[in-house]
Amino acid sequence: LSKAKVPGIGIVKAARLVARFGMGTIDAIANEEEDAIAIIGKKQTARAAEAVRNRRQEAEIGSTLSGHGVGGRLQKKIIEKYGEKTHDVLTKEPYRLIMDVEGVAFATADKIAQAAGLAEDAPARIQAAIVDILRDASRQGHCALYHQQLMERVRQAIYVREPLIEAELAGLTPKHIIQTDVRGMKAWATVRLNRA
């Protein structure tokens, strides 16, 4: 505990807590049990309990993300971005990762979403696929994709009907993507690339 730098717990208090609670020490602190308060003190127990709960949640989130192939550096970015809301984002809005955190690929967010039980034709999934495909095209040197190219790539990537894709294009414009004109034809680009 003292080496883990839990606020308010030094070597002496850590030894007393472990002697009293054994393997249940972390739970005793997190639950702010009376005997833990007697050892640590009321104010220090509140601080320690909050730190322990936060670290426990980070460990659970890290474990979930690792199970989907997300490495430590990207895990840290995700947790820093969403803080206490990370668990909710992962279980309810995993496709936000693509929009909000650089380095998260569609395939990763899609695995998390499938594990959370989101539908394959969910609007957020379609929007995330559109953004990911346009970003991938820009990494390959394309300034934009023609409308039909984008439709075809999204349809091939996530197997949804074109009317669903069309409907979600409107939901993305102009926050994440922008409609443009290339050689007199309707095309789409990522907002970041278009502003470059």
Describe the structure.
This protein is mostly helical and 196 residues long. It is built from twelve helices and three strands; from the N terminus they run αααααααααβααββα. The chain has helices spanning 11-21, 25-30, 34-40, 42-67, 72-82, 86-92, 96-100, 106-116, 123-139, 147-158, 162-172, 191-195; strands spanning 145-146, 177-182, 185-190. The protein has a three-stranded antiparallel sheet with strand order 1-3-2. Helix 9 packs across helix 11 (162-172). The protein is elongated and about 75 Å long. It starts with 10 loop residues before the first helix and ends with a helix.
Brief rundown of the structure:
This protein has helices spanning 11-21, 25-30, 34-40, 42-67, 72-82, 86-92, 96-100, 106-116, 123-139, 147-158, 162-172, 191-195, and strands spanning 145-146, 177-182, 185-190. It has 196 residues and is mainly alpha-helical.
